[in-house]
């Protein structure tokens, strides 16, 4: 019986193809039982069982079978084990297994590229796919089309990650043949979404849908499955373009129960919920909680998961769940202390600030958010939120101080590539340049751009995220007449030309930078620019010279700050306005009124400014009035009963006020001899 089971399995394996994987699994299990004493037959039977389990999508069972087979089977089933790990979502283990074994075959490269793609290492996946596309000697029939589809998908994901610089302009162009396949048209449309070109994306999705529906190679069931993601994307693009009725019509075409892919189903449900525009935030939160949580190998990409999480927190903020959002976001942010410009982390910083301020703005929000910046000084999202609030309060100087302090902290921290990349991130440098320009600090602008350009030039990569910054920095530094600025601009343009030789802007900048200092560097690139004769072919130089040079009138600062001119209807003052201006000119200053008995020849009284009582001519009424007036001076001596005391030794006498007799006063403070009347008993 043992020989018959092994013979049946060998007969099956000798076939050109195996379609019944259940039968293969059954025969393999029987052969394993029969080949206990024969290691070679046992290994073959175990390998067959693993392959059958993988074909039946029983990946967990396949991994258990490999573990039961021991080290010998582990070496034989490297591809099957790596693929099973990939399908169960254990991407790190699959990647480590492939790197340990060695990616030396074309099939291993395909699997390694798929693992890298699912692990969101799209630059590595693009490198592997591009390597296989260039080496077509050992390619299988029809593999070229699949490679192009996967390459376009990888490029679209790089655009989503903000790494469009990693894709050359040549590879971004679509050929006519690629627009004849619905998969490539779909991936190109996804790339257009990443670039923000939704009109182009709508056209490409419609093209992909038409091609899919007209395909003769797909069955009706396959067409139905392939059309679902296309229609979901069409609904999303229509929503972004503001065509809400069209988006609702697309959503009605999608039957959620027919969607097999968990991530696509979750995205369709989320987009349909947003399209409803639920005005009640509490009801919107309840509906959002019904969205499925996708795990495993079908989980969402980080960019998609970030959008889901952001939408959820925004709905909770609208429902006044401030404490919950604040604690959740703070917990996630506390796990990563290193500064980052990742959109997912920056969004969390802004949402945490919104929860802490309870959706307040202005100074109230600043009072609540600034203490958080002291706790998390490297949180870029929180920093940008505070800067935005200061700008809204018309206080850009304080915003710039915060940004400069953040830059200094990064520069003073332990030298690391990540800190330096965040310090000279194009977005943060552009913000600093904008604030410097607002304050008229042009030298600071050139200094900041020069430092950023120097950093990104030091990168060993042929292209990097700083290429756009290098281009703008070079253009700005070209405006300077300082030799060091021109030299820095030249180095920036040299780096750009080396990375992208077809970039005519970089070539022109290189020539302009070294034209007056190092003509030898310029000479090889002169042929890449359009000749001057071609550019001025349609220009009449004589007519321009005869017409002269047009110049705008120079307005002085005093004229700008002068009085506002009157409004003019047709560029001329009306007759009524002219009459009013003439009457205003004729008006004279009113003459001051003079006293009735004023005599210009008479000298005015010099004591006229003194009070009447203090004038020398003052005479009080009555015979003794003057004397009484002197005695009635406020704060002066008040005359009372006096007595004369003789001084000892004949030194004279002194008048003093006579003391009151004891007990004669009616005040509260009596002398020691005063007697008080006691109350008698009644």
Automatic annotation (TrEMBL):
InterPro entries: Signal_recog_part_SRP72_RNA-bd (IPR013699), SRP72 (IPR026270), SRP72_TPR-like (IPR031545), TPR-like_helical_dom_sf (IPR011990). Residues 555-682 are annotated as: Disordered. Residues 663-673 have a biased composition (Gly residues). It comes from the Eukaryota. Residues 567-620 form the Signal recognition particle SRP72 subunit RNA-binding domain. Keywords: Cytoplasm, Endoplasmic reticulum, Ribonucleoprotein, Signal recognition particle. Residues 602-617 have a biased composition (Basic and acidic residues). Gene3D superfamilies: Tetratricopeptide repeat domain. It is found in: Cytoplasm; Endoplasmic reticulum. SUPFAM superfamilies: TPR-like (SSF48452). Its main location: cytoplasm. Residues 586-595, 618-627 have a biased composition (Basic residues). Belongs to the SRP72 family. Component of the signal recognition particle (SRP) complex, a ribonucleoprotein complex that mediates the cotranslational targeting of secretory and membrane proteins to the endoplasmic reticulum (ER). This is Signal recognition particle subunit SRP72. It comes from Neurospora intermedia.
